[in-house]
Amino acid sequence: MLNDILVVLADEHRRQLLTALLEHNPQAAVQTSEGMQLNDEQWGDLEVEMYHNHLPRLEEAGFIRWQKEQNMVVKGPEFDQIKPVLELLEENEDEMPIDWP
What does the CA dihedral 51, 18, 63, 68 come to, rounded to 10 degrees? Predict the structure, then answer.
């Protein structure tokens, strides 16, 4: 399970979504970091990446349930497995490398 968690957390979009679920459940399936501005093309690219890669991967791991019709995600049955790692990362955000979102 630890390897699955580390693979999932390797991508900033997946980390951001899972961390957001710590605070609010449900969440929009596609979102950007605070203050990040995307043009229409960039937003479209992010949607494609989320829909075809990140959301299916998170759902397969059981960390989320993807409600496609509502364009929302909720905590999945395995979310409690990744929650302590997310909390640890969030609590130590100031100690992370500068490019850590």
Answer: -30
Residue 72's domain comprises 2-95
> Distance between CA 60 and CA 13 in Å, rounded?
16
With contact defined as beta carbons under 8 Å apart, do 64 and 58 qualify?
A: yes
When divided into structural domains, the chain yields a total of 1
User: Using one digit for the tens of pLDDT, what is the confidence trace for 49-96?
Assistant: 999 999 999 999 999 999 999 999 999 999 999 999 999 988 887 887
How many CA atoms within 13 Å lie on the side-chain side of 47?
11
Q: Give the global pTM.
A: 0.83
Domain with residue 85: its CATH number is 1.10.10.10
Q: Looking at the domain assignment, is residue 41 inside a domain? A: yes
